[in-house]
Design brief:
Strand content: 35-45%
Domain SnoaL-like: 10-137
Biased composition (Acidic residues): 140-151
Radius of gyration: 18 Å
Number of helices: 4
Pfam family, one: SnoaL_3
Distance between the termini: 66 Å
Strand order of the largest sheet: 2-1-6-5-4-3
Number of strands: 6
Region (Disordered): 132-151
Helix content: 25-40%
CATH architecture: Roll
Largest sheet: 6 strands, mixed
CATH class: Alpha Beta
Number of domains: 1
Order of helices and strands: HHEEHEEEEH
Protein name: Nuclear transport factor 2 family protein
Length: 151
């Protein structure tokens, strides 16, 4: 068996990051982030910048506690490695749902597109997330496409 290239290792770390979110596995997600308390950051779509390990991990705990179902279909994945730093850009095609308001069963599923940048650093334990930034993709509605420009 041959050793994986840096790009393959980073791709695996990136996939593992999203799989932990899908499973709602906060312990696995925690292990994927750098241990440096002050050096990490995260921006979820529509959120302010979160800095520091405790604040970032708390945000994931809140998301997991309030999301009954989430699945990521990653597209446009691009990996760049320079020394001990790696950059991954991708489109997160997200399907998610929370509990229905009355019955407690899974409510309606909602789709969302988010472009993400994940920065990884190489450690003695492998590649770890240093920063995550997700921005929503704004799409035109059918009404906006049908409107004539005003002059």
């Amino acid at each position: 068996m041959t050793a994986r290239t840096d790009v393959e290792q980073v791709e695996l770390a990136n996939t593992t990051f999203y799989e932990a979110m899908e499973r709602g596995d906060l312990d696995a997600l925690t292990a994927l982030w750098l241990a440096d308390e002050d050096g990490i950051s995260c921006v979820h779509p529509g959120w302010p910048v979160l800095s520091g390990r405790a604040e970032v991990l708390r945000s994931y705990a809140l998301i997991m506690a309030n999301t009954e179902y989430i699945q990521f279909f990653l597209t446009d994945v691009a990996v760049s490695v320079s020394g001990d730093t790696a950059l991954v850009t991708c489109t997160e095609n997200i399907l998610s749902g929370g509990p229905a308001e009355e019955s407690g069963e899974l409510g309606p599923l909602v789709g969302q597109l988010v472009v993400a940048t994940n920065v990884f650093r190489r450690t003695g334990d492998g590649w770890r997330v240093w920063s995550h930034h997700g921005s929503p993709v704004l799409t035109e509605t059918d009404e906006e496409e049908d409107e004539e420009p005003s002059s």
